[in-house]
Design a protein that fits this description.
The chain is an alpha+beta fold. About 25% of the residues lie in helices and about 30% in strands.
């Protein structure tokens, strides 16, 4: 029996800065997962992933991540993706430094 498709977002790492980014519906890369396009169709998800993989000068390591609709936009389901939304973990800078203020 086929598995039910779980909604996804396309995520990758920004090539120049290395931080996590998510693909928006209007083809931008955002550092805020809430701005990501929540994809609920498997065929569309594959098309969007191919679009992301076609930008090797912008992002690396693009993949589909499980997500769910939230009040502010897509939210992570798994720990790994929740962790990536908080930014690098080696020291407080970027998203982590902003949260400390």
């Amino acid at each position: 029996m086929p598995r039910t498709f779980t909604p996804k977002v396309v995520t990758a790492n920004a090539l120049l800065k290395g931080d996590a980014v998510w693909l928006t519906e209007d083809d931008r890369w955002s550092r805020d997962m809430a701005e990501a396009e929540l994809i609920e169709d498997e065929a569309h998800a594959q098309i969007r992933l191919l679009f992301a993989e076609g930008q090797p000068g912008v992002v690396v390591g693009a993949y589909l991540a499980d997500a769910q609709a939230g009040p502010e936009g897509p939210e992570p389901i798994h720990f790994r993706e929740a962790f990536r939304t908080r930014g690098p973990s080696n020291y407080a800078h970027g998203k982590q430094a902003e949260a400390v203020k």
